[in-house]
Each structure stands twice: as structure tokens, then as C-alpha cells.
Amino acid sequence: MESMAEKREFLRADISVFLTEENCDAMTLARATDISERGIHYIMPLGPVPREPESLFIEFCLPDDLVPVRAGGRVVSDLSQERTTGRAIEFTRLSSRDAERIRRYVGRRKRAELMESLRQEHLLN
Q1: Of 43, 64, 67, 42, which Cα lies nearest the Cα of 108?
Q2: Does the pLDDT at position 17 exceed 70?
Q3: Are 27 and 21 within 8 A, CB to CB?
Q4: Mean pLDDT over all residues of the chain?
Q5: Is the pLDDT of residue 47 over 60?
Q6: Confidence (pLDDT) at 83
Q7: Domains of the chain by range and CATH?
């Protein structure tokens, strides 16, 4: 059986930024946990959050970047736990400029993770 990482076409990276989700019913503040050029996963506090809206808009800033990313998306996963709701969306509207900014961010994060892994391996040997 293939792992989830093997099925993914785009690299994902951890991210910890706040974002706003807006749909026809409400605007919600959430915390992003990982991102790729294709989509983003985030955590929302439990509450009156509409389930799986047909389309939504999100806005967030990448770390160390003051220009917000604005994207349209569709929900691909919605999982409620005890005190939070995790939601993954696939971008349906994302400018090529914002896609490139996300691609560069993910590349930088992956390089940093690789360098840290190599450093840790070197320290163990």
C-alpha cells in the first residue's frame, strides 16, 4: 500500500501562520499547519463552522513575507476532533505569482529540513 506522501504530486512543508477562511456564511480565523503549491491544511477551533462549503476563500502571509496570499479553494478533508477541526483545501484559484511564492517557501523549508537531518546524522557518527 502506498503511503500518503508517495501519492502526493507536490512537496509539502510545515507552516505555522494564521489565516482567515471566508465563505458565504462566515469568516473564521485558523492556524495553518502545512502547505504545498496544491493546497493547505489548517486547524480551526470548534464552534459554529459550516461543514464543507462548496467554495471558500483564504488569505494568509507566508513567514517573513508581508504580502498576503489570496486563494480560492474547495474542501478535500474535514476532520473534527475534541476541541478543533482540521480542514484541508485544494486551491482552485491561485495566481501564478502566489503559487511561485509558495513553491519557493516549500523549497526553502525542505532544504532546511535536509540540512538539519544531515547535521544530526553527522553528530551521531
Answers
A1: 64
A2: yes
A3: yes
A4: 85
A5: yes
A6: 67
A7: 4-124 (2.40.10.220)
Q: What is the DSSP string of 4-45?
A: HHHH-SS--EEEEEEEEEE-SS-EEEEEEEEE-SSEEEEEEE
DSSP letter for each residue of 50-118: PSS-S-EEEEE--TT--SPEEEEEEEEEEEE-SSEEEEEEEEEEE-HHHHHHHHHHHHHHHHHHHHHHH
SS3 category, 49? coil
- Res. 11 pLDDT band, cuts 50 70 90: confident
Q: Is 52 left (phi over 0), alpha (psi -120 to 50) or beta?
A: left
Q: 61-83: per-residue pLDDT in tens?
A: 999 899 999 999 999 888 876 66
A 10 A CB-CB count for 24 gives 9
Helix (H, G, I), strand (E, B) or coil at 48: coil
Q: How far apart are the first and last CA of the chain?
A: 33
All cell numbers assigned to 58: 483564504
